[in-house]
Amino acid sequence: MILSSKTTLRVRYAETDQMGIVYHSNYLIWFEVGRSELFRELNLPYTEFEKQGLGLAVIEANCRYRQPAHYDDELIVVTEIENMTSRRVVFNYHIYRDQTLLAEGKTVHVFLNQKGRLADVRKYDIWGRLEPIFAKRE
Fold it and tell me: What tens digit of pLDDT does each residue of 50-62 get?
């Protein structure tokens, strides 16, 4: 079972400041790219959650910047599931240029229903596809 993913991306000019250094908020966007790819590799694209009336809301995010990324750098975003319960998911991220760690972070998410209330994913059909992932992490 895949519980981590590597995503390659290239820094676009629009993601940098006047000095050619990546603006800090872009790292959180790249975390989202990593999460989406991880779920896609698990054959659970985010659209599958939405079809069932579930959302995955960020309730906490942090990023530690170690080295700057620059325009046209090729980066690897490593995303892993740290912890999953029936109500929340915690992801860890590491962003590299070659072997150099540029940033690391974590996001915490909760499952929400269509009314924006906390949801127990075990009550949805998608649970049958998520349960093996939960079991693998426990």
Answer: 999 999 999 999 9
